[in-house]
Amino acid sequence: MSKRIAVVISEDPCVTARPVEALRIALGLCAGDHETTVVLLGQAPKLLRKDTDEIIDVDILEKYLPSFTHLSVPFIVESGTAMDTWSDSFSVTTRTADEIRQLIHTVDRSLVF
Hints:
Shape: globular
Radius of gyration: 13 Å
Number of helices: 3
Distance between the termini: 25 Å
Mean pLDDT: 91
Low-confidence stretches: none
Oligomer: single chain
């Protein structure tokens, strides 16, 4: 039975490798029939920027990002997050903090990193 899953990433990918690992886990969840949404909060939106030189485990990140584009995995960021340096190939939607909270409350499962 498929589930609605939210993977919430809020850690800074320039400080820890956990955000890249969280994306790898999210991609694994997308391989099944689950409806997976990735929520990027705080500094986590750096994961989708074109300039990724400072990101820890950038080589792993660059290996997995094309799959997110190919699978059209939805990314959600908080309203007001600058999007001008991001790659246009990702499905990125902005939501208010309240809308993000509501999404997390309505999914069947959530993983928070």
